[in-house]
Automatic annotation (TrEMBL):
Lineage of producing organism: Bacteria, Bacillati, Bacillota, Bacilli, Lactobacillales
SUPFAM superfamilies the UniProt entry points to: P-loop containing nucleoside triphosphate hydrolases
MF annotations from Gene Ontology: ATP binding; ATP hydrolysis activity
Any Pfam family: ABC_tran
Name the record gives this protein: Lantibiotic protection ABC transporter ATP-binding subunit
Keyword Transmembrane found: no
Coiled-coil blocks: none
Entry keyword Nucleotide-binding: yes
Native species: Pseudolactococcus laudensis
Similarity field: Belongs to the ABC transporter superfamily.
Domain ABC transporter residue range list: 6-229
Domain of life of the native organism: Bacteria
UniProt keyword list: ATP-binding, Nucleotide-binding, Transport
Length: 233
């Protein structure tokens, strides 16, 4: 029997009578990488923002560890959605100290988290001088500082060069090895092909596909088939 760390039941978001997300039923298996895919404007970010409490659902339910979602669940959830709340004039260490202060966490895990994301040697270098890849990794460090059971990453490879993309892939797989469940949204299907255990595809606010992913399949072909099938229904 599959254990789901997170599920949604008919999750819907409407803004000014426009439906952005319609009756979404996600099932995210514990300990896996769940890839949420879709074209720009399909509703992926809206879904992820509801999962972390940025947006309030118009209707439907979110279940975390089989119980109705509560704000206290954020103690077990880490996220990087759009831009991380980082300060340009602070170092990586100082940014994490600010995060710990906000969450009432001790500083003792900061060195470990910086090591995980390969930012231990940034010393006094300020965030505003970081490369795109370093900024993304520091954003993930913020999401990891509370030792989450679920990590939600919205387009973590955006703006990265090929080396940065590969490093991000390896980083995500290392989180899975530590027992962290990951929900990732990405447009780079070739990378998702390498890391995803379950695929969800969103089209025009609807979840049109959700299945375990077999590595032997061509993810690009699977994606295009489902988008095209939905478009003619």
């Amino acid at each position: 029997m599959t254990n789901y760390i997170l599920e949604t039941v008919n999750l819907t978001k409407e803004v000014k009578h426009v439906t952005l997300v319609d009756d979404i039923n996600l099932k995210v298996p514990e300990g896996e990488v769940y890839a949420l895919l879709g074209a720009n404007g399909a509703g992926k970010s809206t879904i992820l923002k509801m999962l972390v409490g940025i947006f309030k659902p118009t209707r439907g339910k979110i279940l975390f560890e089989e119980n109705p979602w509560r704000r206290e669940n954020l103690e077990k959830i880490g996220s990087l959605i759009e831009f991380a709340p980082l300060y340009g004039n602070l170092t990586a260490l100082e940014n994490l100290q600010v995060r710990c202060d906000l969450l009432n966490l001790p500083y003792e895990d900061i060195d470990e988290v910086l090591k995980i994301v390969d930012l231990s040697d940034t010393n006094k270098k300020k965030y505003k001088y970081f490369s795109v890849g370093m900024k993304q990794r520091l954003g993930i460090a913020l999401a990891l500082i509370n030792h989450p059971k679920l990590l939600i990453l919205d387009e973590p490879t955006i703006g990265l060069d090929p080396i940065g993309i590969q490093e991000m892939r390896d980083l995500i797989l290392s989180f899975k090895e530590q027992g962290i469940t990951i929900i990732i949204s990405s447009h780079i299907l070739s990378e998702v092909q390498e890391i995803a255990d379950t695929i969800g595809i969103v089209r025009e606010g609807r979840l049109v596909y959700q299945e375990k992913f077999e590595r032997s399949k061509d993810l690009t072909e699977l994606f295009m088939e489902n988008v095209k099938e939905w478009s003619v229904k």
